[in-house]
Amino acid sequence: MKKRKTWLLFMSFLFIFGILVACSNNDESSSDSDGEGEAETESVLVGAMDTAPTGQFNPIFYEEAYEANILSFTHESLLTQNDQLEFEPLLAESWEFNEDHSSVTFKLREDVYWHDGEQFTADDVVFTYKAIADPDYIAAGGVRTSYVEKLVGAEAYMNGETDEFPGVVAEDDFTVTFNFLEPNVIALADASFPIIPEHVFKDIPVSEMPSAEESLQPNKVIGTGPYKFTDMIEGQEYHLTKNENYWQGEPQIETVIWKVVNQDIILSLLETGEIDFVADPNGFQAADYDTVDAMDHVQIIEQTDFGYQILGFIHNFRTEEDIANGVIDPDNFVPNEKLANKNVRQAIAFAIDRQQIIDGLLHGKGQVINSPIAQQFEYFDDENPEQYEFDPEKAKQLLDEAGYVDVNDDGFREDPDGNEWVLNMAYPKGNVIREKSAPIIEEMLEAVGININLLQPLDMKAYVDELTNNTEWDLYLLGWSLSTTDPDPSGLWTADDAYNFGRWNNEEADALVKKAITPPDAFDSEFRKQVYSDWQVMFQDDLPALILYVKNTLYAYNTRLQGVDPSPASFLNDVHKWYLVSEE
Questions:
Q1: What tens digit of pLDDT does each residue of 223-281 get?
Q2: Buried b (16+ CB within 10 A) or exposed e, 68-99
Q3: What is the DSSP annotation of 282-342?
Q4: pTM
């Protein structure tokens, strides 16, 4: 494997990322109200989220899904996607590839203005991608370098060897070209990152961007979206005010307020009308479905989540030196001997009754999957990868074969050398279902003789810091929300990915990931489908993680809110089309 080092002062939070939540809206024009009631004179809409944003509102640095709730209203990309995940125009009105698909040129809209009145131009696109490629970007906490790595000149620019960046070029004020090192199968996905304004950030070094007021403070955060971020009571309320000059038409709701509300009282506030909707990232709990369904003034939307929950396996640790230096170098990984035997990881998978978790905690509103590629993509393989049906006897057999047996009759297995064998299992606070699943998984594993030390849960910030740097954990719980733009699993599951918390290092698997996006073969969807099938089979065999379940996302909103049309991945879609009607 070619060595690559990634320098990072790693981000403080990732609740559900991946490759993270898209901040875009569809491009259809705003429509007039056609509801049965009369439009309200004071249009204030209140949404609830159960966790406060950590406070980073710059799209190139934001850290988690709660911040994305704000950014979904404020920032936009060149492209958006429809319900079939096909790319459609947004800030770009059209695009054209060159003959071999190594370059794509976008014609930008000329009627788009930033919230402060400055016109959006191709220079903003160039600036955004140069900032992501900046030598100081990763050290400042940025993790989206996959968007620039395929661009011409990116490596030299990222290494500080040149000031030139020919990867993204402004041909004129409203034409921008992306130049890739080779024909790029996922060029449109790479070109669909939310854009930030050059005129706001041009005098701020990238190393200082995350701490700048322009990334943190209401009225300083500037986008092109239908709403402006105008006020906040940090940790409690976040206020968005309509952008009267929005290019798709003035939004009809004047103010959107996000309130941070404990999960325990969200539904009571929904019932009384004190909040109008509960949506991303968690919606409401499946246990409360009947309660919400009985609310006459509330509409429910149920759809498959674009992500999953995992039980992760720590395959390797970083060295203390690499941790201190902020380096991820697979050549220096130290194997976690407690989970080094593949039979052990597979035994753990067979020992966990995932359907029981779904039935008991999700009240049946979820499903078992056996692939880390979202099932909404055509590349998802639900047949060939190992299914890991619940089979505790199979789990015991695999452990026996690996030499993990109970030698002192205390009910727990020792390692092949007869030493005590205890797996440290960690999980974060903040997600009720995940918190409840942790002791259930502990009990299932102990039923086959695996001694689990269930650690105390941590707040998400501390949890991700520990997950990034620890040298003692063995198992961890986490949830990922996936990008809708492409099934490419790099960013999460290749050896030097920052989010590859288990430090899975499988050269064959990484080669398949690269093969799936390498032209010219990868332009053939059937070829790509086969390669991704092979990768999914390898993932399930080597098990960097056990995919526990995909939940059904449950959104709820007051029927006075009209125009709601969720995307496959988010409730917050086409928000400029939302409007309110008077309650009868």
A1: 999 999 999 999 999 999 999 999 999 999 999 999 999 888 999 999 999 999 999 88
A2: bbbbbbbbbbbbbbeeebebebbbbbebeeee
A3: T-S-GGGHHHHHT-TTEEEEEEE-SEEEEEEE--EE--HHHHHHTEE-GGG-EE-GGG-SH
A4: 0.80
